Amino acid sequence: METPEGKDLKPKMDLREKLAISSALHIDRARLHWLFSLGVVCLVMGGLLAIQVRSRTPEGQTLANRFRQAESGPLSAFGQIYSNSLKQIEDQKATIAALTKSNDNYFKAITQNQDAVKPLAKQLTDFKVSLGLTAAKGPGIILEVKDSTMRVGDNPEDGLPEMQNMFLIHDTDLLQITNELWAAGAEAISLNGQRIVGGTAIRCVGPATRVNDVVVTAPYRFIVLGDSASLANSLNIQGGVLDRLRPLKFPITLEQKDQLVVPPISAAKVFRLAKPVEPTGEKPAATE
Amino acid sequence: MFLLPIVALIIGFLLVYNLKIDMANYADYLSIAILAGLDSIAGGIRARLEDNFEEYVFTTGFFVNMVLAALLVFLGDRMGVNFYLAVTVALGVRIFQNLGRIRGQLTARLLHRRFVENARQEQL
Question: In angstroms, what separates the C-alpha of A40 from chain B's closest C-alpha?
């Protein structure tokens, strides 16, 4: 296959004459012709390329179809993720529909069978209050305790600087107060907005105290629901918790209120290991 | 104006692509024909830059080369000789040679233009 273009078939003079004429006419005719024939050739070339590209890519792999049925090719991974996500959405829609339906059924049962369900609902609400899952309201007391106003440095005779620790409210004080409150018949307690429930730990961490794993600092403000008079009396009992704090000049305020609100716990306890024991009639075997 | 061949290429591609012609059975011959066509185009541009371009030679060369290349491969298939590879190598080498000479011409022109400009500035 020789290159026919490479051969110089016409003398160069001819081209130069042409150029001279065309430049006189302000049209570069030689160049025009060159581009024109090249354009025609390129048109054919494009068509051939298209046929080749078309033949090389099966119908399933054309760009328009790739996203829909991508089982091979560079986009297959994305295509699979996409179709999987679609499937998941469909599944979840079905789940939602089923749950909505069962919810409707429950609601129907409740409305039809109110007498049977009412005690259960009451029980459930009580459980929720005792677990701290809902906010509770009622009469009670507000108790606020602050760190002592005494400063060791004021008078050298008072003691060493390390003894300032004595004049701070500690986790043990808070625990004693809480214990006293429960003993006096408190029904719901919150400390600085943290509901105190069965699993609540009150623990000193550095300069602050953690309640329900949330940092609280002085002043410590208890909101307690219960019989306000007996709560106040038991706290103020001689030799009681507050009696021991007062001589050290801890500012304490105690108010009795008719209407108080205790907030719910922010997160219910998650049981990972503890499992309920099915009531089988026999006593559960003691385990070590 | 220089965009004409490129535009023509794209138009041709789109026109035929939408026709959905399937020639998967002749893909080998078609690919060789395309290679020969590319060689002809590169040769044409090179000839133009070297001032010995001739339209008729170019256009006939384009088509005839393509048909011949495809025929050669077809013949090779009939005879049991793998001409496909031979033609591919030969055309590939030629395309690269043509492209190299095009590059040479273009750079030479660019350098020449700069040289002329520099000389002019020096004169002024």
Answer: 7
- Considering only CB atoms, A46 lies closest to which of B12, B48, B94, namely B12
Chain A residues with CB-CB distance to B61 below 8 A: 3-5
Residue A21's H or E segment, with its range, is helix A12-24
Amino acid residing at B27: A
Is residue B103 situated within a structural domain? Answer: yes
Whether A41 and B37 lie within 8 Å, measured CB to CB: yes
Average pLDDT over residues A168-189: 90
- Answer whether A55 sits within 8 Å of B57, measured CB to CB: no
> How would residue A1 be classed by pLDDT, with cut points 50, 70 and 90?
very low
The model carries a pTM of: 0.41
Task: Collapse the DSSP code of A244 into the 3-class scheme (helix H, G, I; strand E, B; otherwise coil) and give the result.
Answer: helix
Q: Is residue B20 part of a domain?
A: no
Q: Give how far B79 is from chain A: nearest CA, Å.
A: 20
Q: Which of B12, B26, B55 sits opposite A42 (nearest CB)?
A: B12
Q: 3-state SS of A194-220?
A: EEECCCCCEEEECCEEEECCEEECCCE
Contact at CB, A43 and B8, closer than 8 angstroms: yes
Give the nearest partner residue to A51 out of B23, B53, B62, using CB atoms. Answer: B23
Residue B92 lies in a domain: yes
Q: Is residue B64 part of a domain?
A: yes
Is B5 in contact with A38 (Cβ distance < 8 A)? yes
ipTM above 0.85, yes or no: no
| Domain housing B88 | 26-123
Number of domains chain B is built from: 1
Question: In terms of Cα–Cα distance, which of B115, B52, B55, B35 is closest to A39?
Answer: B55
